[in-house]
């Protein structure tokens, strides 16, 4: 919990549940968080812990303060939680009247955001946590990643222009990924390490959390039937006091 202030100036306790979406780029993680964002009591914090992107530490959040990534990577689980709660309190001050001080915060988590010991601390110690594991078929993710890295087209997978590029480009099969290891440049480096990074990340998550501590959502759950199945899977997994925020579809 944290505290905020009602419009009449009296303190109000904030009750916060956290949905952490453990995924990777080109897996429809943005689409899943957007589905959840239909609730007025859902706070979409996107890549909060990504200091190379839209995270709080690079000044996008936390009142514009900048925190060097080297410092973030030394933060304890308690310090990371404090940073998140501080931002929740700041954002929620404006919305207390509608939500009565109870919120669900949604955050993406990719492997390069933090160190594995920090990821593990979050997954095993954050309170009121629902961990969602979103994994896309590695072959399909490879195609989308290849297009994004080589053309700069990072549009959502469901957008027709991106689909057309995947259909019309001559994309090397995943089994030939080692060919990129002999090339120079950031793109080649990423493609060279693509399968190992994918497999190690999801193995790490599943080794850290038993089946009853995580919600497994597939790419097809998100992109099929308007994402209803994925939405309902997350809604059912929330702590009971927060389930009213997300009525089943």
Features of this protein?
249 residues, alpha/beta, six-stranded mixed β-sheet
Question: What is the structure about, briefly put?
Answer:
The chain has 249 residues and is of the alpha/beta class. It contains eleven helices and six strands.
Give a verbal description of the structure.
- This protein has helices spanning 29-36, 69-72, 77-92, 96-99, 116-125, 138-151, 160-168, 186-192, 194-208, 219-223, 228-237, and strands spanning 2-5, 11-22, 42-44, 102-109, 129-135, 215-218.
- It is α/β, with parallel strands linked by helices and 249 residues long.
- Strand 1 and strand 2 (11-22) form a beta hairpin.
- The model is unreliable at 2-11 and 57-61 (pLDDT under 50).
SS class: alpha/beta
Nearest-angstrom radius of gyration?
Answer: 19 Å
Mean pLDDT: 85
Helix content: 40-55%
The overall strand count is 6
List the helices and strands and how they pair.
Layout: E1 2-5, E2 11-22, H1 29-36, E3 42-44, H2 69-72, H3 77-92, H4 96-99, E4 102-109, H5 116-125, E5 129-135, H6 138-151, H7 160-168, H8 186-192, H9 194-208, E6 215-218, H10 219-223, H11 228-237
Parallel strand pairs: 2-4, 2-5, 3-4, 5-6
Antiparallel strand pairs: 1-2
